[in-house]
Task: inverse folding
């Protein structure tokens, strides 16, 4: 009976490929190992997913595997299952999904374990050494002596034997020594506790007990608590248990920016090897970190989104910090997965608990709690005994503005500075001004590639598009009428300048993507704030995360209104999360905090409800609204998105796609519609939404629909992707 291997290859085809086992060593192949195979005229590295008794491919066309690349699987059974599940759930080609899970070097066939060059003395060499040879070559004699005492890695020889290569060549030529490439032996990392940590508060104790009782079995927990309530301390205690049991943990964070602090806290608590995986690593660094995880050397694997695919032998716990964060969703390329959702699935397949932490959980997660699927653990009090901050709205219609800052806000800043507090002013718009306007003819500097205005960057003397990256010189005159132009509106750069004028002599720090390009820039801002040298911090979304400034007592949110009237049904949720997260920056130390939110809509129910009933109250109302409108989590969504250079091609393609397969009665197709910003980076974007109350019919439909879409001639003429559970609609 012919026996074939089923292999995943990184191609756009939605299938596995069959190969015959190699002439020798085929019996040892198990799923999860990589093999090199012929594919057309290429040779590709692929992953063995399984085997079958026979193949649909005629026997004479089956080709054998060229080479087996691994002595043991690179992905364990639970990960193989997870990736197979992800390929189905996200309707993405299985080979591409497996490729996304491996570092590039491994996709190209690099060894899964680090190798090293080792040298040893042969029997003849040992005998020669004993006989006192080689007599007239002291360097050779020294090296032979060293190796006769025991084999050594080339790196050790570099350290111990000075320049030894020439002597080695001579000894090698006489057959006295030999070398080999072998796998570097890595000891599984140990784990010792450096310090015990503080006595837990009752809420923390209950949370640790609940999850600890669940170790060894699948289960999803939501750890809900405001910033500073001690969530990280709960993670640390659970990691301690997991490490004690000789197991390993996977910890996911939304952004690289959050890794240094967490790493510092892990290192302060445990003496144990960590592997850190994030998008800023070079291919070589990523391979090294992956190997440390795969080989079991690392006991804690910490990383951003794609680390959800990291191999972690004897996994004991998965933590997803800031689970509501949009960065967990891959929003580029074809494979648009949610790392948070995959983490939950991974925990289920691996039989380990998953702990989702957040001050502002996503409505999906809260819904899963109400439905009894997740267990909620709440931390109510602030760990460091601080008071929760007091929130107040400032009615922009009733107050004078100076450079975008209302009089009550200016007075509050003065007051807090006078009391030696620090102040955070939040504005989610970088640059100097969002618009460059000609006051004579009304011309506004547009981006040539997007339906968007160019942002003024005064310090740099540039006009930039924040959507496509277009970058040009800042004109002083209107290109249409020749009159002078002026920047209109506020960005963080201008805000920093205006605050400098309002509060002369007060040192101001700014945190946005223009001031923080490298990690050192971020550390610099943090140092200035922590030392008290900087008194006011101006920043975008970047300031909402991490960093604890105990002396920060006032937060001013300059413009809360951007999210109030968006067409995206998730905009209110994001706004509420942002406000709560920014507000959480205030009063983290001993002093009470104050939060001022400037708005033109102080009666908007979202804001009044958020202030009166907190995030909990907001979430309750928002979930009711979602239920009524049949939006997620009360329905399932997928978005088919397309973009093309010509204005109508994307819409035409989506119209054809819509007509390609008739959906069942329960599945609704909404659109196609042009994106709110239809033109971006020179391409015209449009989308078609697929909605259904139930998951199963939606996925059955998508499964039938995609092959029909792929068969459309227009599908090859433009870019399109399917986004299952989209979180950003446009
Ligand atoms: P979160 O992760 O929710 O923001 P952290 O775990 O970072 O909260 O805790 C906030 C601060 O309180 C930290 O400085 C932490 O060291 C401290 N802390 C946490 N738990 C306790 C505790 N049980 N007793 C005293 N201090 C604590
Ligand atoms: Zn003009
Ligand atoms: Zn642009």
Result:
């Amino acid at each position: 009976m012919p026996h074939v291997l089923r292999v995943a290859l990184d191609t756009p085809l939605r299938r596995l490929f069959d190969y015959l086992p190699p002439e020798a060593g085929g019996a040892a192949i198990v799923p999860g190992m990589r093999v090199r195979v012929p594919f057309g005229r290429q040779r590709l590295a692929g992953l063995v997913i399984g085997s079958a008794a026979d193949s649909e491919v005629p026997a004479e066309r089956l080709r054998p595997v060229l080479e087996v690349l691994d002595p043991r699987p690179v992905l364990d059974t639970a990960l193989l299952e997870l990736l197979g599940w992800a390929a189905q759930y996200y309707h993405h080609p299985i080979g591409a999904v497996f490729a996304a899970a491996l570092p590039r070097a491994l996709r190209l066939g690099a060894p899964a374990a680090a190798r090293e060059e080792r040298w040893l003395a042969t029997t003849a060499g040992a005998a020669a050494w004993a006989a006192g040879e080689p007599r007239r070559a002291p360097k050779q004699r020294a090296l032979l002596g060293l190796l006769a005492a025991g084999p050594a890695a080339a790196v050790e020889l570099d350290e111990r034997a000075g320049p030894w290569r020439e002597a080695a060549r001579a000894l090698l030529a006489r057959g006295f020594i030999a070398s080999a490439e072998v796998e570097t032996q890595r000891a599984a990392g140990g784990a010792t506790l450096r310090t015990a940590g503080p006595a837990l508060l009752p809420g923390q104790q209950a949370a640790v007990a609940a999850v600890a009782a669940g170790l060894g079995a699948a289960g999803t927990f939501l750890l809900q608590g405001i910033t500073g309530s001690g969530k990280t301390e709960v993670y640390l205690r659970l990691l301690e248990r997991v490490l004690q049991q000789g197991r390993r943990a996977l910890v996911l964070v939304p952004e690289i920016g959050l890794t240094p602090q967490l790493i510092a806290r892990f290192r302060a608590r445990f003496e144990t090897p960590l592997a850190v995986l994030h998008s800023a690593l070079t291919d070589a660094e990523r391979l090294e970190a992956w190997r440390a995880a795969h080989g079991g050397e690392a006991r804690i694997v910490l990383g951003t989104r794609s680390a959800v695919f990291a191999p972690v032998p004897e996994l004991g716990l998965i933590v997803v910090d800031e689970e509501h964060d949009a960065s967990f969703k891959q929003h580029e390329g074809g494979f648009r997965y949610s790392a948070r959702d995959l983490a939950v699935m991974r925990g289920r397949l691996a039989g380990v608990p998953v702990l989702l932490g957040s001050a502002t959980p996503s409505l999906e997660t809260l819904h899963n709690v109400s439905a009894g699927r997740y267990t909620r653990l709440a931390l109510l009090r602030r760990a460091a005994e601080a008071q929760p901050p007091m929130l107040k709205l400032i009615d922009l219609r009733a107050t004078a503005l100076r450079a975008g800052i209302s009089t009550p806000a200016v007075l509050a800043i003065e007051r807090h500075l006078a009391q030696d507090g620090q102040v955070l002013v939040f504005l989610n718009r970088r640059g100097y001004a969002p618009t460059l306007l000609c006051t004579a003819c009304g011309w506004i500097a547009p981006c040539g590639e997007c339906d968007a205005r160019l942002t003024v960057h005064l310090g740099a003397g540039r006009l930039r598009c924040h959507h496509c990256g277009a970058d040009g010189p800042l004109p002083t005159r209107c290109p249409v009428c020749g009159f002078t132009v002026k920047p209109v509106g506020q960005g963080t750069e201008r805000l920093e300048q205006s605050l400098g004028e309002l509060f002369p002599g007060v040192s101001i720090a700014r945190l946005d993507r223009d001031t923080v390009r490298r990690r050192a820039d971020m550390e610099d801002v943090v140092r200035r704030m922590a030392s008290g040298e900087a008194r006011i911090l101006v920043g975008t979304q970047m300031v909402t995360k991490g960093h604890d400034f105990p002396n920060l007592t006032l937060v001013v949110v300059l413009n809360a209104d951007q999210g109030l009237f968006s067409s995206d049904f998730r905009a209110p949720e994001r706004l509420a999360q942002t406000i709560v997260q920014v507000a959480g920056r205030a009063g983290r130390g001993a002093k009470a905090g104050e939060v001022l939110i400037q708005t033109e809509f102080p009666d908007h129910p979202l804001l009044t409800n958020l202030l009166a009933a907190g995030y909990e109250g907001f979430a309750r109302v928002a979930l009711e609204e979602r239920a009524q409108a049949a939006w997620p989590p009360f329905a399932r969504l997928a978005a088919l998105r397309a973009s093309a250079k010509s204005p109508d091609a994307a819409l035409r393609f989506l119209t054809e796609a819509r007509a390609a397969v008739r959906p069942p009665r329960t599945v609704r197709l909404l659109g196609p519609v042009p994106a709110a910003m239809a033109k971006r980076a020179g391409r015209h974007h449009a989308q078609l939404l697929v909605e259904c109350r139930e998951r199963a019919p939606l996925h059955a439909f998508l499964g039938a629909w995609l092959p029909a879409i792929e068969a459309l001639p227009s599908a090859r003429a433009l870019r399109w992707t399917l986004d299952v559970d989209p979180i950003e609609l446009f």
